[in-house]
Amino acid sequence: MGASKLVGGITRHVARVAQRRSGQLLNGRSAELIQPAAAGPLLLLRDISTAAGSHHGLSGLSRSRWELGRTVPWQAVWSRGFADGDFTAVVPSMGESITDGSLAAILKSEGDHVEADEVIAQIETDKVTIDVRTPEAGTITAIKVKEGDTVTPGTVVATLSKGEAPPKTDAAPKAEEPKSEEPKAEAPPPKEEKKAAPPPKQEKAAPPPPPKPASPPPPKPAAPQDTPQLVPKDRERRVPMTRLRKRVATRLKDSQNTFALLTTFNEIDMTNIMQLRSDFKDAFLEKHGVKLGFMSGFVKAAAESLKKAPVVNAVIDGDDIIYRDYVDVSIAVGTPKGLVVPVLRDAEKLGFADIEKKINELGEKARSGTLSIDEMAGGTFTISNGGVYGSLLSTPIVNPPQSAILGMHSIQKRPMVVGADIKPRPMMYVALTYDHRLIDGREAVLFLRNVKDIVEDPRRLLLDV
């Protein structure tokens, strides 16, 4: 047919151009090479200028510019680069540990004009939300996916054109009009007459059908018995879990199933650190542009304590123990979508101001859903502050592959013995949950006691005692 000749001609043309260009982009833009397959569908070769590897059998097309795509029917193929002004917006790379995601939201519609690098869709993964952006300004001509679809890196989300949308929208209905007229032109009466002939035969077969419908009812009630789902009730609604929530649930349950979790407690007199904050909060804000909080004091105390108790910063890997000579502190942040833990890199080298700035930055990104994979990867120790929600006491769960987590709680005034007197003091309960397979009770208690000593008297940080 003429279409196959056209496809073959395009294939040969692209191969010749690619040979001359030695893998360079065609006309400065990405393009797809269409090859006919044995069974009729086509193989897509996509331009991926960021990848690397070997050739795919076409001389001049290096792996650095092309990769073998999925097999699709030739009718569904949209070529890029052959027509001026046509381009696509695709799913970007999601990171090494993420292979796919769910399309959470489509922010634009067909016919909308978008600017370069504008977000048109959002993809929810197990860890973060990823934006799909347009490579350049143009008008969306077609949305190729729908909300809830599972997509992988390179999936085409939308096709765009530099041309205006109105003329293209006018052409679409015109093309549809003749299609609507064609069914009208067809003669249904004769077909209906043929169908009218068999009724008498059906009447003969009428007696057997009654027993058949009677049999289906029994299996239908059997199905709900096999499914563990709850029977819906009034004023209840069922909502599918997000990928992030499912991931959090899986990891926390794996932690309980794998680790020998044990929690030790202590209490901290917050008088001195609260006085320190009150004395220097204005000067600190004026110089560093960020407020002085309690989290920076606990991060510094934990970092110093981990130096003295390196096993708390270690992790079991098979039959080995991996000791880390650095401290990357994960800060647990609650968001509407679920719990995320951005990481403070090399916390032992950071000052109070650096810690506060970084915590504010990561917290804003966590709440807006713009954290990157790199900002959440790793972490050797976690700090969770349930006190911001009013929690008095809790037993936090270790975040794998770490071995311990420090839980902060709310500050409450309680009567405490100070010297020979009883005085009201602002007290905070702290909890350390740890993997007892690796960390003995002695190390855990001494670590938590050292955190208590530093927070109660921050001068220890200056004297390194």
UniProtKB/TrEMBL annotation:
UniProt cross-references to CDD domains, sorted A to Z: lipoyl_domain (cd06849)
Matching InterPro entries: 2-oxoA_DH_lipoyl-BS, 2-oxoacid_dehydrogenase, 2-oxoacid_DH_actylTfrase, Biotin_lipoyl, CAT-like_dom_sf, Single_hybrid_motif, SucB
Residue ranges with Pro residues bias: 206-222
Segments for region (Disordered): 158-242
One GO location term (cellular component): mitochondrion
Subcellular location field: Mitochondrion
Protein's UniProt keywords contain Mitochondrion: yes
Biased composition (Basic and acidic residues): 165-204
Source species, domain of life: Eukaryota
TM segment ranges: none
Cofactor(s), names only, from the UniProt record: (R)-lipoate
Residue ranges of domain Lipoyl-binding in the record: 86-161
Biological process according to GO: L-lysine catabolic process to acetyl-CoA via saccharopine; tricarboxylic acid cycle
Pathway: Amino-acid degradation; L-lysine degradation via saccharopine pathway; glutaryl-CoA from L-lysine: step 6/6
Reactions catalysed, as given in the entry: N(6)-[(R)-dihydrolipoyl]-L-lysyl-[protein] + succinyl-CoA = N(6)-[(R)-S(8)-succinyldihydrolipoyl]-L-lysyl-[protein] + CoA
Any one GO molecular function term: dihydrolipoyllysine-residue succinyltransferase activity
Gene3D superfamilies: 2.40.50.100, Chloramphenicol acetyltransferase-like domain
Stored PROSITE patterns: BIOTINYL_LIPOYL, LIPOYL
A Pfam family the protein falls into: Biotin_lipoyl
Subunit structure: Forms a 24-polypeptide structural core with octahedral symmetry.
PANTHER family for the chain: DIHYDROLIPOYLLYSINE-RESIDUE SUCCINYLTRANSFERASE COMPONENT OF 2-OXOGLUTARATE DEHYDROGENASE COMPLEX, MITOCHONDRIAL, DIHYDROLIPOYLLYSINE-RESIDUE SUCCINYLTRANSFERASE COMPONENT OF 2-OXOGLUTARATE DEHYDROGENASE COMPLEX, MITOCHONDRIAL-RELATED
Protein role: The 2-oxoglutarate dehydrogenase complex catalyzes the overall conversion of 2-oxoglutarate to succinyl-CoA and CO(2). It contains multiple copies of three enzymatic components: 2-oxoglutarate dehydrogenase (E1), dihydrolipoamide succinyltransferase (E2) and lipoamide dehydrogenase (E3).
Family statement: Belongs to the 2-oxoacid dehydrogenase family.
UniProt-recorded name of the protein: dihydrolipoyllysine-residue succinyltransferase
